[in-house]
Amino acid sequence: MPLAVGTPVTGNINYASSAQNVKPITNYINNSGNASLTNAPKNNLPLRYPNAQLEDTTDWLEIKVVQYKPPGFSTQAGTLRFGTGTAAVRNKESGSIKNPIRYIHLPIPKQLSDGNSVDWGPDRLNPLSGMGAAAVEGLIQNPANIGSILQNAYNTAVGTVQTGEGQKAVTAGVTSKILNSLGANVSSASVLGRTTGTIINPNLELLFNSVNLREFMFTFDFSPRDSYEGEVVKQIIKTFKKSMAAKTSVFGGPGAGLLISAPDVFELKFKSGSRNHPFLNVFKTCALLDVRIDYTASGNYSTYSDGTPVHISMSLTFKELNPIYAEDYDSADAGSGVGY
To answer: Which residues contact 316 (CB under 8 A, 6 or more apart)?
Structure first.
């Protein structure tokens, strides 16, 4: 019988006898030579764990390792939008999707969540700056009316100064300048607040600043039940470690060593049997930021007779190459579930 995760074991032991339950990976290859749950080529069989449980009705995670394609500086036709690393990787003419470096099939992580965020921040604009901005905007939109635009801005400024509130602000500004020329460090806002108990209206407002890139952290438990699964787990760990590392051997000749190349990137997709998952979120192409392996996931060091740890935990941190936009939810890539 297979060992349950967390079973306390000490010393080196033999693998549990589970050969009658474990199907070799060749059992999942159809007559055309392709894996039944993917379109992986025959000479690129997927690494899958556990070997006996990922059936056609199982929910699972498909990970493709693909070569990173830099976006370059060309813009999309008729727009000022630059190309993206995601678009370059997904360009079928590049062959990256047709011939991925490796497929990895894993069970759904034990903790699963997704989150989207954008960056908003406070912004201030005092009335005088606002009037100046309005005047400049008017000049840009109607350069032929420069005379009337400047005259209106001047009249507005003079009218403001002639009011009681305007005179207080001007007095505070002049006072601070005089004090600072004598070595003091006093702002006009400080003088205005101390003398009148008021401040210049900052017109504080929350404004949109930027988009953010989504990050995902997944944790997988491995408890190999025989030597075959132990070898698969070893290859899965090695593949992730190798694929996230930068490359130095891609440049040859006298300039070798001057530049290093970007690591591979990853296409993640939740699956339900042979189809895309009907509910869970979808991903844009991701970079792998962090790989952490715990070879003593049960709290003590224990291995099988060939040295394979009995219980291994692997934590992966992915980050998407490109942000999510509202239009992405209307695309075919968003799928039939919750979208991105």
So the answer is: 217, 218, 219, 220, 240, 288, 290, 291
**Token pair listed for 33:** 């030579």
Q: How many CA atoms lie within 13 A of 95 on its CB side?
A: 3
Query: 287: which strand partners?
Result: 319
Assess whether 111 and 125 both reside in one domain: no
Q: Report the relative pairing of strands 102-107 and 205-211 from DSSP bridges.
A: unpaired
Which residues constitute the domain of residue 200? 120-208
What is the per-residue pLDDT for 18? 33
The total of structural domains in the chain comes to 2
Cβ-proximal residues to 261 (8 Å cutoff; 6+ apart), any chain: 246, 247, 248, 250, 251
Whats the size of the chain, residue-wise? Answer: 340
Using the 3D structure, point to which of 191, 208, 225 is the last residue of a domain.
Answer: 208
With the C-alpha atoms ordered 302, 307, 313, 317, is the resulting torsion angle positive or negative?
positive
- Residue 244 confidence (pLDDT): 97
Amino acid at 52: A
**Helix 146-161 with 164-181: angle, nearest 10 deg:** 80
DSSP per-residue codes, 22-71 = PPPGGGGB-TTSSBTTS---TTSPPEESSTTT--TT-EEEEEEEE-----
Q: Which tokens sit at 31? A: 């007559």
pLDDT along the chain (340 residues), means of 10: 34 35 37 36 71 78 92 68 62 51 92 94 79 64 62 54 57 60 68 70 90 97 94 96 88 72 95 93 97 96 94 97 95 93
Strand partners, 269: 62
Dist CA 291 CA 278 (whole Å): 29
Same domain, 318 and 217: yes
**What's 146's DSSP letter?**
H
- CA-CA distance, 129 to 127, in Å (whole number)? 5
* pLDDT confidence of residue 237: 97
pLDDT of residue 40: 34
Beta pairing, strands 205-211 & 118-123:
antiparallel
- From the centroid of its chain, how far is CA 106? 20
Query: Helix, strand, or coil here: 25?
Result: helix
If asked whether residues 110 and 219 sit together in one domain, one would say yes
**Are the CB atoms for 220 and 318 separated by under 8 Å?**
no
